[in-house]
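REQUEST
  id: r-88c1
  op: predict_structure
  target: VTC domain-containing protein
  payload:
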Amino acid sequence: MIPALRALARAAMAARPVPLADVQARAELLTRFGHSYLVPVEVFAALAAELTDRRRPGGPFAVLCINGRRWFRYRSVHYDTPDLRFFHDHRAGGRPGYLIRERRYEDTGERQFEIKLKGRRGETVKHRQPLLPGDEPLGAAPRGFLASVLDRSFGIAAPADLGHCLETAYTRTTFVADGQRITCDAALLCRDLTTDRTVRADGGLVLVETRTTGRPTAADRLLHGHGVRAADFTKYLGGLSALRPELTAAHWRRAVRTAFPAAGGRAVP
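RESPONSE
  id: r-88c1
  status: 200
  body:
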């Protein structure tokens, strides 16, 4: 088993399980601030043990559990324009910034059309709409939803020339406390939907993303104590940069090389 997957499973089994309704009630956080960390498995194991310790002041973090499962397979398809407008807007730090994807929950078959907006204070605001069986992700209903969100949020029109760009697949465990949610991803695989090339992330790393309404989470503080600093990394930007090294921004390069060392800046067929 990939070391990061093994660490994820052990951490999830050590925590108290809670259902999805509890996670949504305690920390749904559709509008949130967050940080991303590329965490070696040894540090992740220590982090998870501290967060889920039943003697922890303020109480332990719990783990999302659905139908007995504590880790879940995700697959996302990211959309962009032919000239990668969204990618380059984020690379330049321009506003308004937004990303569009279809998220598939592989264990249940559920699909969501999602729009992630970057707010004026740097916060992320997520809008989503369920996709029914047979629905096209870029069909009339999702396009209407996209147009409505962009007009209401930024006063701009939706691009007409959207297409598939990048597919990401990974396994996730989610830990939660009041007002705090921590997602932990392992076995990330990225596929360029234009060239069909793939790149796999380092199996000894867990991608930890902290989400909160503003203040640093307990996980942020613990990771800083272990000497791990936030990385300028997202699955879409990092994966596409690893697959197409000529696109990599200077301030992403270190994180991309850390996440995808085996690629050596080159994707494989």
